[in-house]
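W.,

You were right to be curious about this one. When I first looked at the sequence I had no strong expectations either way, so I just let the prediction run and decided to look at it fresh. Below is the sequence, 149 residues in total, followed by the output.
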Amino acid sequence: MEQQNYSNHRRYVPAFHLLAGSLVLVVFFYTAFRLGKVLISGHWVLTRMVYYSLMPFIVGSVLVLLFWYSRRFALAAQDRAIRAEESLRYYILTGKAIDKRITMSQIIALRFAPDEELVALTQQAAEKNMSRDEIKKAIKNWRADNCRA
């Protein structure tokens, strides 16, 4: 496996992000187009035409929601685990709880900092309100996270 660093640390799964995401969007927009066509044509009075246009649109909408929330819920669970791990790591290194000013986004970025840089970088992030990108760029010796979703 290639050495992880700032430029290659993002995880991209083509089958999920590109293929599945594109197909879900195609289904949603196609069914929205069909429903709009029926409603604009004035045939919406005919229950059967509305049914055959509305049901696929509802299914397409549900697919979009499932696609979005399946990823959001997984990331939320991962974020909670990262917060717990990094809070424990900071406590082990300093004997103190992590600064309350540190945001979840900053904690997620700090997971790439090695033990030698973590304490100073955490203080710097709290004092300067650094973005996650600034924190990642400030890391000198990248600590790879190969166990992420």
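Here's what jumped out at me. The CA atoms of residues 86 and 92 lie 10 Å apart. And, maybe more interesting for your project: The mean pLDDT is 86.

Coffee later to discuss?

I.
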